[in-house]
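Hallway conversation turned thread

IA: we were arguing at lunch whether anyone had actually written out DUF3231 family protein end to end. Turns out nobody had. So, for the record, here is the sequence (344 residues) and right after it the structure tokens. Reply here if something looks off.
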Amino acid sequence: MDTIKPIKIGSKKMNPTEKLTAAEMGKLWATFMGNSMSKQILIYFLQHVEDEDIKKLLENALSLVHDFMNTIEGIFEKESFPIPVGFTENDVNLGAPRLFEDEFYVHYLKYAAKAGLSIYNIAIPLVYREDVRNFFIHCMNSTIVLTEQIKEVLMNKGFIIKPPYIPIPEKVKFVKEDFLNGFLGHVRTLHGLEVTHLYDNIENNVTSKALILGFSQVARMEKVRELFMRGKDMTHRAVEQYMYKLHNANLPSPPFLDHLVTTSTISPFSDKLMLFHKVDMFSMKIRAFGNSMAVNGRHDLGFMYTRALMNISLFVEDGAKIMINNGWMEQPPLAVDRDRLASK
């Protein structure tokens, strides 16, 4: 059924000399960097995977990575835009022992797919050049297909529980003054959107914790290792808080995944890659908390997310400083510094 009727305003075709906007340039750059990292991680995962279904997921994900990177390189070359260094075979040790069990790979892929969808979801309304717009629509559609395959494997293999069930309302109601209460007086039970984001934050953070637990075992630099340990403890405390909110409402939550990390202490990745990855993952948490706070109604949940947001922002800043001090952070495309030009 055609719900949206076509609008024919004109026959304007893409100008082959049309410049990239800041949004197009920035999102293409970020997508290339993320997929450059994912490429090395997926190649390593494929070295050890045994389950055939999970192997197929990893191969499909890697195929998308190659597809996305090749398309971006083509656009950049056409614009004489320097190809980012990103991450190379120098950032992965394919001879390193297994660091994660097969099941973790599926949880990781779901987390990575969510991160990709958040980039593409923001990009699509902001990009106008035809080739860039079509590229991000392709990224979104392809990642949705991969996400459905991931969910199918997670459910069929019993690796995950669905978000909790709540009863269907008997009738339409309007809230009263105590709706926002969280600390004092009558505190209502969680509403559906609050349950959704608590579940999502738990799902994201148990994956993030297992990954940073593995990274903390193998990191070579002391500062990087200490930051990972700090991130692990911070993530664990946060997950316990989210779980408590659900359990206090007699609702189930996804379990920790720490048992899916092996005892290996030999690093499969460079400290540069691992630190970039964790800074990127923690940055995604900031976006997730923003979404959680936007639909939240209880004061206690709002305070919990605000405090977590502050802690994560400090972690991201400290991680960025280590990357900068070691010459690991590539600079994204910048606007013109007019003041500097005027002073010359």
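OS: looked through it. The domain at 178-325 is CATH 1.20.1260.10 (Ferritin).
IA: good, adding that to the notes. DSSP finds nine helices and no strands in the chain.
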